[in-house]
Amino acid sequence: MTEINYQGLPWPVRDDVTAAQRRAWERLGRVGTWLTGAERIAVAAETRHAPNCTLCQQRKDALSPNSVNGRHDQLGALPELEVEQIHRIHTDPGRLSRAWYRDLCDGGVAEERYVEIVGVIATAVAIDTFTKGLGLDLWPLPEAQEGMPSRHRPAAAEQQMAWVSTLSPQDAMGSVDEDLYGGRPTVGNVVQAMSLVPAEVRNFFDLVTHQYLPPAAMMDFATEYRAISHAQIELAAGRVSALNQCVY
Amino acid sequence: MNYQPWALLRASGHNDGSEYDLSVMTGADISGEGAGGGVANGALLLRFATAAWAGDAGDLAAARTEIAETMGAAALTDTAAVVALFDAIDRVADATGIPLEDQKAAITADFRSTIGIDDFAAADEKGYST
User: Fold this and answer.
1) Average pLDDT over residues A101-115
2) What average pLDDT does chain A have?
């Protein structure tokens, strides 16, 4: 398997960033909670393929994405509705809606698979956008590993604040997922967003800690933790969020 | 934990006595005077973030060179890491339909409308446009 390696670049990539990306890449090919290793790799591959989809481009250009029908240009390894999920999340995230999500579920997409797919998309985007940002070729996807998904669903997960079911910090206490929020009684909604599949929270927030900041550093304005300041970090982050039309 | 960059940029400014212009993050003009919003080398960061998001190889190459020469090579890779991470975490927030916490909605209400965040489709969808 090709290992992520930024040695030899004219710009130094921090060792902890490289290490976090290597962990994430290795997990990408591992059997998931609801998806096999092969399915997780297929999701990552479809994520990369989505920008080439004619239907997605037409929808992106339309006043409403719902006004354009058709079939996605796809790689053929995943069910049609999961391709719809992946393509829309990748190409037009700012115009997703609860009704769109409900349509996917009514059509047969399982909520747990939906959330795990979101986690795989997020991991692929975090690493691919970084790689492209530095002008490098994308890393080859890892090989899929064998194994059966654990199908672990937190017993106390329920629909409470998001479209998807989530596990609150209070309900995580005393459960097998007690470590999920580090024992904190409250965490931001985005940290809880994928908690229906706890492994995806752990996986993705490992990248968050290294590519962005650890939780304790986010509002510690007295100390600078990166080669760019807090203000510079937030300006760059805010610009991307604005371009993605993300209101969170 | 607060992952909302607009609020954190303003909080950062309060800490060091600066009043940053948050509208540059949503603005169309990222090359004019004041384009950086008062943040040191802000215009360079905005250009890089915009080019990385758009995937424009030419603009991206130019933005990389600008940042590396002006701010240093480590600043370039740290900027790329942040930009990529937010390109991903935005999708987590949008795809799961999480709402903005009441507290964050309250502390950002005064500028969300002004800088155009409330005009995003998701603001109406999630019911917290002002």
Assistant:
1) 98
2) 97
> Tens digits of per-residue pLDDT, B17-67?
999 999 999 988 888 777 899 999 999 999 999 999 999 999 999 999 999
Residues 6+ apart with CB under 8 A from A131: A137, A138, A139
Which residue in the block uniquely carries the two structure tokens 């929808």? A59
ipTM above 0.90, yes or no: yes
- B56 at interface of A, judged by CB pairs closer than 8 A: no
- Restricting to B residues 20-39, those with a Cβ less than 8 Å away from any Cβ of A are 20, 22, 24-26, 36-37, 39
Yes or no, beta carbons of B89 and A127 under 8 Å apart: no
Model pLDDT for residues A144-200, shown as the tens digit of each residue:
999 999 999 999 999 999 999 999 999 999 999 999 999 899 999 999 999 999 999
Residue with tokens 């998931």: A32
Which of B60, B91, B89, B99 minimizes the C-alpha distance to A213?
B89
Measured CA to CA, the distance from residue B127 to residue B130 in angstroms comes to 9
Residues in chain A with CB shorter than 8 Å from the CB of B87 are 125-126, 129, 240, 244
Contact state of B84 with A234 under an 8 Å Cβ cutoff = no
- Chain A residue whose CA is closest to B75: A227
Closest residue in chain B to residue A217, using alpha carbons only: B1
CA distance B102 to A139: 40
- Chain center to CA of A184: 22
Mention every residue, 6+ apart, whose C-beta is less than 8 A from residue B97: A96, A98, A101, A162, A163, A164, B126
Q: Where are the domains of chain A?
A: 11-150
Report the CATH number of the A11-150 domain: 1.20.1290
- pTM here is 0.97
Residues of chain B positioned with their CB less than 8 A from the CB of A59 = none
A213 CB-near residues (< 8 Å, 6+ apart):
A225, A226, A233
CA nearest A245 in B: which residue?
Answer: B120
